[in-house]
Specification:
heterodimer; A: 288 residues; 2 domains; four-stranded antiparallel beta sheet; B: mainly alpha; binds adenosine-5'-triphosphate; binds magnesium ion
Chain lengths: 288, 273
């Protein structure tokens, strides 16, 4: 065990509590007993390879997917048993930035940000207009207020999506691959934004990503998801130690180490080789 | 495949087809009942107000944009009816009856059916493509995540707008068929046809001819938009899925329209309407 100085104080009850979550599509198990607590004010980063179930886990945390087994609690409320109206009450307390930004393409950037305010508050139009400008200023997009989503770049879409996500001053923010597909500078800007929001608004953040630079920049704690299982949840320093340390011979640690370092050799690639590709080829060629 | 296998295979295939069809109908029934609940809420509870602006946008999109095509198509239907129905009437010296026939066929059936078929290509396909694209770009999920119900905000205005506009367009269509018939009588057929054309049509038609046509139009409107919304919202697999959804929408709509027309006609016949 590595010594960590920045471990957050864990006296509070978790705002998000995922217990033994299992999700299957047909017969394919995508989440296989995931357990995860996220505490108030911290930034939790969930890492994992493509297709390991990160977005699926996120969809369960926002109540848009029903698990086969297990439970998801937000603010102490079990999302699985909530009615539509109760779920909507919870939804007003968190915001989510989707992988593609998910702006409403038929509305301007400003209207996108204004929508939750129009629908869920009794504020008058002038006030909403001011709030929209404040939110857009926060993400550095004030000048884009009247543009259509089709007219702005991918990075701007993500920032606009973020402005919409924080429109109702959420207590939790979820991010699905906030920096994927962006250039390093824009990606670093988004990271800075995430940290600013956590600092300025005191929100709890859950960030799903496979960009390691970004993950290590923003995380308080990190979780490593692999084939639908949570391999390890630990403070950032512990993952840094694994990344910077030598291979240990312990399968799980080495697997995490390979992922963090982006090495082309290691347990992840070994595992792919074990799937019998060579035998298949040989068999097709007429047996060994 | 061995000989005994072929019938089993066929039965299995037919069974699977029936099951998917039932699943689809079930899905649409649920969508319709949720829509009905929102409409009820919007009318009877002050809290869930109607999105008048959204409804207007949809009515313009469904109706105003297709009125030209509907009118054009229906005029030609009137022309065709006049030209095809006159020869059989001639031996009886009843060329004048062509206006009666155009009236009944147009108002009772061809007006609503052809309008609905045009709309399934016009409005149905575009609704399915639009909603499907929204699914692919995560917009629907985003909507749910900001606590807005997609059925209430997207499906309800589209179904209501298509329902209303199919009826209104059918009224236009009915008259266009009649006009098409009259123009043909005037230009091609003799005075036996066009003298007293409107009087005979007026004498032949009763309100029920007009109203049963409009009832059918309303049913078709709901079917088209329901199928379009259902196919659009269950798109999977990116842009390709959107293309599939639009094609399916048009095909299923036309089948549904014809089946519904048949059922409606049977009911009207049984009750002597
Ligand atoms: N609605 C669905 N129906 C069937 N299978 C699904 C569905 N959603 C996800 N999957 C499957 O679940 C697995 C995990 O998907 P998920 O989107 O959670 O991966 P991810 O970790 O977010 O990957 P990426 O990094 O590429 O975004 C994939 O194999 C995917 O095919
Ligand atoms: Mg994903």
């Amino acid at each position: 065990m590595v010594e960590t100085q920045e471990q957050p104080v864990r006296t509070a009850t978790p705002v998000i509590s995922v217990v033994d979550l299992v999700k299957r599509f047909d017969s394919k198990t995508v989440l296989d007993g995931v357990t995860l607590d996220v505490f108030p004010g911290e930034t939790m980063v969930i890492m994992g390879g493509s297709g390991c179930g990160k977005s699926t886990l996120l969809r369960h945390m926002i109540g848009s997917m029903q698990p086969n087994e297990g439970s998801v609690r937000l603010f102490g409320e079990d999302l699985v048993v909530l009615s539509e109206d109760q779920l909507n009450a919870v939804r007003k307390r968190f915001g989510i930035l989707f992988q593609s930004g998910a702006l409403f393409n038929s509305m301007t950037v400003g209207e996108n940000v204004a929508l939750p305010l129009n629908e869920h508050t009794d504020l008058d139009e002038a006030t909403i207009d001011i709030m929209v400008r404040i939110k857009l200023e926060l993400v550095g997009l004030r000048e884009a207020v009247d543009l259509m989503p089709a007219e702005i770049s991918g990075g701007m879409k993500k920032r606009a999506g973020l402005a919409r996500a924080i429109a109702l001053d959420p207590e939790i923010l979820f991010y699905d691959e906030p920096s994927a597909g962006l250039d390093p500078v824009t990606s670093a800007e988004i990271d800075q934004l995430i940290m600013d929001l956590t600092g300025k608004l005191g929100v709890t953040s859950v960030v799903v990503t496979h960009e390691m630079d970004s993950a290590f920049r923003i995380a308080d704690r990190m979780g490593m998801l692999d084939k639908g299982r949570m391999l390890k949840i630990a403070p950032r320093a512990e993952f840094e130690a694994i990344r910077d340390g030598e291979a240990t011979g312990d399968e799980m640690t080495d697997l995490i180490r390979q992922f963090l370092r982006g090495d082309s050799e290691g347990p992840i690639t070994d595992r792919r080789r074990e799937t019998g590709y060579e035998e298949d080829i040989l068999e097709m060629a007429g047996g060994p | 495949m061995d000989r005994a296998g072929i019938p089993i295979y066929l039965v299995r295939w037919a069974g699977a087809q029936v099951l998917t069809a039932l699943g689809r109908i079930g899905g649409m029934a649920i969508l319709l009942s949720v829509t009905a609940r929102w409409v009820y809420k919007a009318i009877f509870t002050p809290k869930a107000r109607f999105d008048v602006e959204g409804l207007t946008v949809q009515m313009v999109r469904v109706g105003v944009k297709s009125v030209g095509v509907v009118a054009l198509v229906q005029i030609f239907i009137g022309v065709i009816l006049a030209l095809q129905m006159t020869p059989p009437l001639e031996p009886f010296g009843q060329e004048g009856m062509v206006s009666n026939i155009i009236g009944v066929a147009g108002f009772r059936m061809l007006g609503p059916i052809i309008t609905a078929v045009v709309l399934s290509g016009f409005a149905g396909a575009s609704i399915a493509a639009e909603l499907g694209t929204m699914v692919v770009s995560e917009e629907i999920e985003a909507m749910e995540a900001i606590a807005l119900n997609p059925i209430r905000y997207l499906v309800v205005p589209r179904i209501l707008a298509t329902f209303v506009m199919t009826i209104l367009l059918t009224i236009v269509a009915d008259w266009m068929i009649a006009v098409g018939g009259w123009v043909t009588s005037r230009l091609v057929l003799g005075p036996e046809s066009y003298v007293g054309y409107w009087v005979r049509m007026r004498e032949q038609l009763r309100y029920r001819d007009f109203v049963t046509g409009l009832i059918q139009a309303g049913v078709f409107g709901i079917l088209i938009s329901l199928i379009a919304c259902h196919e659009g919202l269950k798109v999977t697999g990116g842009a390709e899925g959107v293309g599939r959804a639009t094609t399916k929408t048009v095909v299923y709509s036309i089948v549904a329209i014809v089946i519904a027309a048949c059922i409606c006609t049977m009911i009207f016949y049984a009750f002597e309407l």
